[in-house]
Amino acid sequence: MSADDPTLWALFLSAFLASTLLPGGSEVVIGTLAYQGHHDPWALLVIATAGNTLGGMTSWGIGRFVDWWFPSQNVQQPKYQRAMAWVRRWGSPVLLLSWVPIVGDPLCVAAGWLRIHWMATVLWMSLGKAARYGVIVLAAS
């Protein structure tokens, strides 16, 4: 396994895109790679978690800086209002759920909008995402 392995870059890209506001299916990619057994499971876990967390931080950044580009009323969609209520109530630990489809992206955007510190965001987000990928790797290995 090397840094120029296109399979691992594809996993990283898949995990990154799956955690942005774009649709993606990184679970299938990491599950397939873990099942094939050609890569170290820890490497798969770290690469997928890093890509997915970076994608989530992109969503956090969108939320953090959206008011520079758009007036506040543009973030009044119900999915963002619900996510903001969760983040206000539970704080950064709610980002353990950032991996959940449909819910996770708005949580990341809301955390940025509400100015949750980036280090707390990375910590809780990466823990949730690593746990999810860990379960997939264990199940597929």
What integer value in Å does the Rg equal?
A: 16 Å
The number of helical elements comes to 6
Low-confidence stretches: none
Distance between the termini: 17 Å
Sheet-strand content, in percent, reads under 5%
Total number of β-strand segments?
0
Question: What can be said about the biggest beta sheet?
Answer: none
Which class best fits the helix and strand makeup? mainly alpha
Task: Give, in order, the helices and strands.
Answer: HHHHHH
Describe this entry's structure for a reader.
It comes from Candidatus Nitronereus thalassa. Keywords: Membrane, Transmembrane, Transmembrane helix. InterPro entries: DedA_domain, VTT_dom. The protein is mainly α. The chain contains 6 helices and no strands. Helix 1 packs antiparallel against helix 2 and helix 3 packs antiparallel against helix 6. It is elongated.
Can you give me a brief rundown of this structure?
With 141 residues, the protein is mainly alpha-helical. Helices cover 70% and strands 0% of the residues. 37% of the residues are buried.
Keywords:
141 residues, mainly alpha, 0% strand, DedA_domain, transmembrane, membrane
Helix and strand arrangement:
Elements: H1 6-18, H2 26-36, H3 41-69, H4 78-90, H5 104-113, H6 118-140
